[in-house]
Specification:
heterotrimer; A alpha+beta (152); B alpha/beta (501); C alpha+beta (397); A: 152 residues; alpha+beta; Alpha-Beta Plaits; 2 domains; two-stranded antiparallel ribbon; 5 helices; C: 397 residues; Glutamine Phosphoribosylpyrophosphate, subunit 1, domain 1; 7-stranded antiparallel beta sheet; 5-stranded antiparallel beta sheet; 29% helix; globular
Chain lengths: 152, 501, 397
C-alpha cells in the first residue's frame, strides 16, 4: 500500500501539513472555518523540532499495528482491504493505551484518539493525502511501500 | 542614533482570514511576523520586511499581502523618497550603498520595442507539432572553411572543441557562496536533463556537483577561487570572467559570514574569511595578456574544451569583443547592465554599463563587418525574461543566451534584491542550513526544466511562425524584427527597420 | 514612386523549368518556351527570363556580358569602364523582336565578349573570375542606369519584365542553341517593373531560377557578406547564388556538397547516424550553420557543369523531374514536362533537401577522376563591391 514518509532533511518546520490536516478533517474543508468556526481538534500530523532540525511525525500504517492490538475498546481497527488504520471516535474511550504502544508517537488524544487516516483527494495528485499535497518541499512523500514490521 | 530610514513595505494581514497558524512566522528569516498570544493576533515588524513574498506564498489562507509603505512623498521629482532614503542610510552608516539583482532603474528596455515577424501567404509558417523544429546550438570557434573528403565522409583537420546545447539557453554564472549548493544543484540537474549547461561562477565546483561536469561551464575570475587543473578539466568549457553586467569595473565580495566549511573547501580559502575578487585580473592589464590566459587554459585542458570570455556591456563593447575574438576566445559572452548580482555597490549597479540589446547588436555587427562573426560564438545575457527575449536576442545575433535571474525566479526568487543579507527565505542566496534546506533540488530542477521546456516550445512556435525550422536560420536574422517607439539612431544600432517598413 | 528591386525586399512566387541534354548536344529554345508558357498562371507578367548554356561556342573563352542600359550615358560610361578593365573581342546589340506588343519599354540591351585586360589583372590581387565579378558588382552598383544581366562564359541570360513566353519571343530565343536551358516566370507581390530585377539571377557562370521565399534570407545575407559579397538586390536568388559561389567555387566543394550544406540533414537524422557519419555531418552543420537555407524554395542552378535542382528540407515547394534518353527535364509542374516530352520516363517529385545533380557526361567522367577533397581558393574578395577592381580614374590611362 501507499504510505506517507517524512524526510527529515527537507522538513523546514513550516507546519503547513498540520494546517492541511486539520482542514482536511473539518466538515467545511476550509481552513478559516476549520480553525475559527468548527474548532477542529488538533492535527494528526505533528512537526517536531525547531527551525534547525525538524521532522513531521505521522502514522506509518504498520502492517502489524501495536495500537490495534492494544486497543481496549476495539475502536482502533485496521481495514484488511486498504491496510489503513483508523480509530472510531464513537467507540474510543480515550484511555491512551494506543499512545503508549505506538513506537513512533504518532497518536495523540484530545478526548478521543486522533491519528492519520490517509485522508486523500484533497489538493494535489489524486488520492494524495492533504499533508503531502501541502508540503512545499517534498519533506512528506506518499509512496508504495511494504511498511515497517514493528510489533511483529 | 535614531534611525531615519523608513520602512519600505507594509505587511497587510486580513484579520478575517488569518488563522494564527504561525506558518508566516516560521517562514520569515527576517523576523517580521509574530504570533502574539497575549494580543490574540499576529503582529508584524514592517521595517524588517524585504518583500520576498515567502509568507504570501506559504500562508495557507492567503491572508497576507505586502504593500508599499504608504508614506507620501514630498511631491518633488527630484528629491524622491528613494533618493532621500539612500541619503538617510548613508548618513547613518557612512558606507557604500549595497544592492542586489539587476539594474532596476527605468532605462529603456529595448526588448519591449522589438516586434517579431510571422509568415503570411507568400511562404508558409511551419507547425512545430508536425514538422521537426530544431533548437540545437553548438558553441565554440570554427574555421571559415572545412577540408572535406566528400567520398569518404571525413573531415581533416577536426573542428575545434564545441559544446552542444539542445536548447539555446544556459544558466549563467552564479557561484556556490553567492547561491546555495541546493540552488546550484537544482541548476546542474536541470542542465543535465535539458541538455544544456550551468556555470560555476567564481566559486569553484563543489565535489557533489562534479558528476554534472559534462553540463558545467567552470569559471575563472579575478580571484581565481577554486581554480586548479582538476577544476579546469572537470567542466565542459571554461569561462574567463572579465566583467559582469551588474557591476562593470568592480570585483566581487563574498562576506566571510557566507564562507562556511563547504564554501571554504570549494573556494580553497580559509573558513570565515571574506572572498574578495579584484576588480581586474592582475595578470590581465591588456588584450595580449588575455590571449596568454586563454592559451594557458587551453594548454591546461589540452585543447579539448572551448574557452569563453565574459565581459560586461560597456561603451566600447564592440571593439573589445572583436579583440577577444582575435585573442583566441571561442565564445564571447556579453552581459548587459540589467544582469543580476548577489551584491554590488548600488551606484555601480544603477549607473554603469549599457543595455544588452544595443551591446549585442553592436558586437554582432562589428564581428560581421570584420568578417569573423562565423568563427566565434556569441552568448548574450543580462535580463532575458521570456522566450520572446531569446528569439529577439538570437535575431540580433546571439548564438545562445544565459539566464540567471529567470532561473532563480523559477526556483522561487521574488527579486526582493536582498541577496546580500544572506537571509534569503527561498533558500537561494544564503548559506544558512535552515534556509538552504528550503530549496529541495528535486523540486528546483523540475521547476527550471518546466520553465525551459515551456520556453523552448514557445521558441519553436515563434520561429515556426516565421517559416524557420532551425534556430541557425534565426541567428542575425534581423529582418525578423521591427522596431516600435525607437529613434533613428536606436534603429541604426539595432540594425532593424521600423514597424510598417 | 514604387521602390525597385534592391530598395526593398519583394517576396514572390514563381514557375521554374529546366531542360538539359547530358550529351552536350544543343537544342533551340522552342521546348523551354513551351514548358514555361504552360505555367502561365504561376507568373503575373512582372518578370520572366531564361538562361542558356552553350550558346556562344565561337566565343567560348570570353566572358559574355549581357547589359541593360536605361540611357545612352549609362552605356557610354559602362563601355568606357569595360574598355579600361577588359579587352573586348566583340560588342553588339542583342537582337530582339520589337513586335512583341506585350513587352513595354525595354532597355537598350547589349552584349560584349570580354577578357580581363592582362596588365590590369596583374595589377590586382584577384584571379580572373574575381576580377570579372568585381567589375560586374561595380557596374551594377555604381553606374546609374546600367545592369549586367549575365557575365559567364558561353552562356547568357535573357530576361525582362513580362510573361516569360513573351520575353522568350522578344529575345528570339528560338534562334539560340543550348545544351541547358532554364526558365523562370515570376509572381512578385508588388510591381517593381525593373528589368534588372527579373530572373534568372546570374553571376559569372552561375544562373539560378528559384521559386520560393526563404525565411533565412537575412542570416544567409549576413553570412556571405563576411566573405565580400554584397546583396544589393535583396533577393533570395541573389543570396543563394552567392552561397553556391562561396561554397562551390571558393571553398572548392562539389555543387552537390554545396547544396547538401544548404539543406543539411536534421539533427534527428544526424543523431541516428553511425558515429563517424554523425561527426562528419555535425562538423558541416556547425561550421556552415549560417549557410543553411530555410523556408520554402525550389531552385535550379545552372553552370558549366550542368544543372542542379534543390528543394527545401521540408519540401514546401513543388519540383518535378523526368528523363528521356540523354534529356533531363525539371519543372514546377508535371504538365510543363509532359507538354514538351509526352513520353518522358521516371517522372517523379524531388525529395526535400536531396540535391538532384545532372552533369554533362564529360563533366561527370572528369569529376569521377578528381580528388574528393576540396581545395579552397584563397580569396581576396573582401570589402565593398562599390569599388572597381582597378582604379576608375581614367586620366592616368
Amino acid at each position: 500500500m501507499k504510505r506517507i514518509y517524512a524526510i527529515e532533511s527537507w522538513c523546514i518546520d513550516c507546519k503547513r501539513c498540520e494546517v492541511a490536516c486539520r482542514t482536511a478533517h473539518s466538515k467545511s474543508k476550509d481552513p478559516v472555518k476549520a480553525y475559527k468556526v468548527e474548532h477542529v481538534p488538533g492535527a494528526r500530523i505533528h512537526v517536531e523540532g525547531d527551525q534547525h532540525v525538524s521532522i513531521a511525525v505521522n502514522c506509518r500504517q504498520c502492517p502489524k499495528p501495536a495500537c490495534v492490538d492494544a486497543c481496549i475498546s476495539g475502536a482502533m481497527q485496521r481495514d484488511p482491504e486498504t491496510g489503513i488504520i483508523t480509530s472510531d471516535p464513537e467507540r474510543c474511550v480515550g484511555c491512551r493505551t494506543c499512545v503508549s504502544e505506538c513506537p513512533f508517537g504518532c497518536i495523540h488524544v484530545e478526548s478521543v484518539a486522533l491519528k492519520c487516516d490517509l485522508c486523500g483527494d484533497g489538493h494535489g495528485e489524486p488520492g494524495e493525502p492533504a499533508c503531502v499535497a501541502a508540503c512545499p518541499n517534498r519533506a512528506l512523500i506518499y509512496v508504495e511501500s511494504e511498511g515497517c514490521h514493528h510489533g511483529e | 542614533m535614531l534611525d531615519y530610514v523608513l520602512p519600505r513595505y507594509r505587511v497587510l494581514r486580513d484579520k478575517d482570514e488569518c488563522i494564527q497558524c504561525g506558518v508566516c512566522e516560521r517562514s520569515c528569516s527576517n523576523g517580521v511576523h509574530h504570533v502574539d498570544t497575549d494580543l490574540g493576533r499576529v503582529t508584524a515588524d514592517h521595517s524588517k520586511c524585504v518583500n520576498c513574498q515567502r509568507c504570501v506564498v506559504m500562508c495557507p489562507t492567503q491572508a497576507i499581502a505586502i504593500s508599499k509603505w504608504p508614506q507620501v512623498g514630498n511631491g518633488t521629482n527630484n528629491w524622491t523618497l528613494e533618493n532621500m532614503q539612500d541619503i538617510a542610510k548613508q548618513a547613518q552608516t557612512g558606507a557604500v550603498l549595497l544592492a542586489s539583482m539587476g539594474n532596476p532603474k527605468p532605462y529603456p528596455i529595448y526588448w519591449d520595442h522589438l516586434l517579431l515577424n510571422a509568415s503570411q501567404v507568400t511562404n508558409p509558417s511551419i507547425d512545430p507539432l508536425r514538422e521537426p523544429m530544431e533548437t540545437r546550438v553548438f558553441l565554440g570557434s570554427r574555421p571559415n572553411v572545412l577540408k572535406v573528403n566528400e567520398r569518404e565522409h571525413t573531415i581533416s583537420p577536426k573542428i575545434p572543441p564545441q559544446i552542444k546545447l539542445d536548447v539555446p539557453v544556459m544558466f549563467g554564472a552564479m557561484s556556490f557562496g553567492a547561491i546555495s549548493l541546493n540552488a546550484q544543484k537544482s541548476l546542474a540537474m536541470a542542465a543535465e536533463e535539458l541538455g544544456t549547461y550551468f556555470n560555476t561562477g567564481e566559486g569553484g565546483l563543489h565535489k557533489d556537483l562534479e558528476r554534472y561536469g559534462k553540463n558545467c561551464i567552470v569559471q575563472v575570475a579575478s580571484g581565481r577561487f577554486g581554480v586548479d587543473p582538476h577544476y579546469l578539466n572537470a567542466g565542459a568549457a571554461i569561462e574567463i570572467k572579465i566583467g559582469q553586467g551588474a557591476k562593470p569595473g568592480i570585483g566581487g565580495h563574498l562576506p566571510g559570514t557566507k564562507v562556511n566549511e563547504e564554501v571554504s573547501r570549494t573556494r580553497m580559502i580559509p573558513e570565515g574569511t571574506d572572498a574578495i575578487s579584484p576588480a581586474p585580473h592582475h595578470d590581465i592589464y591588456s588584450i595580449e595578456d588575455l590571449r596568454q590566459l586563454i592559451f594557458s587554459i587551453k594548454e591546461a585542458t589540452r585543447y579539448t574544451k572551448p574557452v569563453a570570455v565574459k565581459i560586461a556591456a560597456v561603451h566600447n563593447v564592440a571593439a573589445i569583443a572583436s579583440g577577444i575574438a582575435r585573442a583566441g576566445a571561442d565564445i564571447i559572452v556579453v552581459d548587459g547592465f540589467r544582469g543580476g548580482t548577489g551584491a554590488a555597490p548600488k551606484r555601480t549597479r544603477d549607473n554603469v554599463g549599457i543595455p544588452i540589446e544595443l551591446a549585442l547588436a553592436a558586437v554582432d555587427a562589428r564581428l560581421h563587418d570584420e568578417g569573423i562573426r562565423s568563427m566565434v560564438s556569441v552568448v548574450a545575457s543580462g535580463s532575458i525574461r521570456s522566450s520572446a527575449d531569446i528569439v529577439r536576442a538570437i535575431a540580433l545575433g546571439a548564438d545562445a543566451v544565459y539566464i540567471g535571474s529567470a532561473a532563480l525566479i523559477a526556483l522561487g526568487c521574488h527579486q526582493c534584491q536582498d541577496c546580500g543579507s544572506g537571509k534569503c527565505n527561498w533558500g537561494i542566496a544564503t548559506q544558512k542550513p535552515d534556509l538552504t534546506r528550503r530549496l529541495n533540488p528535486e523540486i528546483g530542477a523540475q521547476r527550471v526544466v518546466n520553465l525551459i521546456r515551456g520556453w523552448n516550445r514557445e521558441i519553436q512556435e515563434m520561429i515556426g511562425g516565421m517559416g524557420i525550422n532551425a534556430i541557425d536560420s534565426l541567428r542575425g536574422n534581423r529582418l525578423m524584427l521591427r522596431g516600435v517607439g525607437l529613434n533613428e539612431k536606436e534603429l541604426e544600432i539595432l540594425g532593424v527597420k521600423y514597424a510598417g517598413e | 514612386m514604387v521602390p525597385r528591386e534592391g530598395d526593398v525586399r519583394i517576396p514572390s512566387g514563381c514557375a521554374i523549368s529546366g531542360i538539359m541534354d547530358r550529351s552536350g548536344t544543343r537544342h533551340d529554345g522552342t521546348d523551354i518556351l513551351k514548358s514555361i508558357a504552360l505555367m502561365h498562371d504561376r507568373s503575373n507578367g512582372l518578370g520572366g527570363g531564361f538562361a542558356a548554356y552553350g550558346i556562344y561556342p565561337d566565343y567560348h573563352d570570353f566572358y559574355a556580358f549581357h547589359v541593360f542600359y536605361d540611357t545612352r550615358e549609362a552605356r557610354s560610361e559602362t563601355e568606357s569602364f569595360l574598355n579600361d578593365c577588359f579587352l573586348c573581342e566583340k560588342q553588339e546589340r542583342i537582337p530582339t523582336d520589337e513586335t512583341v506588343r506585350s513587352i513595354k519599354n525595354p532597355p537598350r540591351i547589349w552584349r560584349y565578349f570580354l577578357q580581363p585586360n592582362p596588365h590590369k589583372l596583374a595589377a590586382t590581387e584577384y584571379d580572373e573570375a574575381e576580377f570579372t565579378m568585381k567589375a560586374v558588382f561595380y557596374i551594377n552598383s555604381q553606374i546609374k542606369g546600367a545592369f549586367v544581366a549575365s557575365s559567364g562564359k558561353d552562356m547568357g541570360a535573357f530576361k525582362g519584365v513580362g510573361y516569360p513566353e513573351d520575353i522568350g519571343e522578344f529575345y528570339r530565343i528560338q534562334d539560340y542553341k543550348a545544351w541547358l536551358w532554364t526558365a523562370h516566370g515570376r509572381f512578385p507581390t508588388n510591381t517593381p517593373g525593373w528589368w534588372g530585377g527579373a530572373h534568372p539571377f546570374t553571376l559569372l557562370n552561375w544562373s539560378i531560377v528559384h521559386n520560393g521565399e526563404i525565411s533565412s534570407y537575412d542570416t544567409n545575407r549576413r553570412y556571405v557578406e563576411q566573405f565580400g559579397y554584397e546583396c544589393t538586390l535583396q533577393t533570395d536568388t541573389e543570396v543563394i547564388t552567392y552561397l553556391f559561389d562561396l561554397l562551390a567555387r571558393r571553398h572548392g566543394f562539389s555543387q552537390e556538397m554545396a547544396a547538401h550544406i544548404m539543406t543539411a540533414p536534421s539533427w534527428d537524422d544526424i543523431d541516428r547516424m553511425d558515429p563517424q557519419q554523425s561527426a562528419y555531418e555535425t562538423a558541416l552543420r556547425v561550421v556552415y550553420s549560417s549557410a543553411l537555407v530555410n523556408g520554402p524554395f525550389s531552385i535550379i542552378l545552372g553552370s558549366e557543369e550542368g544543372m542542379l535542382a534543390l528543394n527545401d528540407r521540408l519540401k514546401l515547394r513543388a519540383l518535378m523531374a523526368a528523363e528521356k534518353g540523354s534529356m533531363v527535364y525539371l519543372a514546377s509542374e508535371q504538365a510543363a514536362i509532359s507538354v514538351v516530352c509526352p513520353d518522358a520516363e521516371n517522372m517523379r517529385s524531388l525529395d526535400g533537401g536531396v540535391p538532384f545533380v545532372v552533369q554533362l557526361d564529360e563533366v561527370a567522367e572528369r569529376k569521377a577522376k578528381e580528388s574528393p577533397v576540396n581545395e579552397p581558393v584563397p580569396s581576396k574578395l573582401k570589402g565593398s563591391r562599390t569599388t572597381a577592381p582597378v582604379s576608375t580614374d581614367r586620366r592616368g590611362v
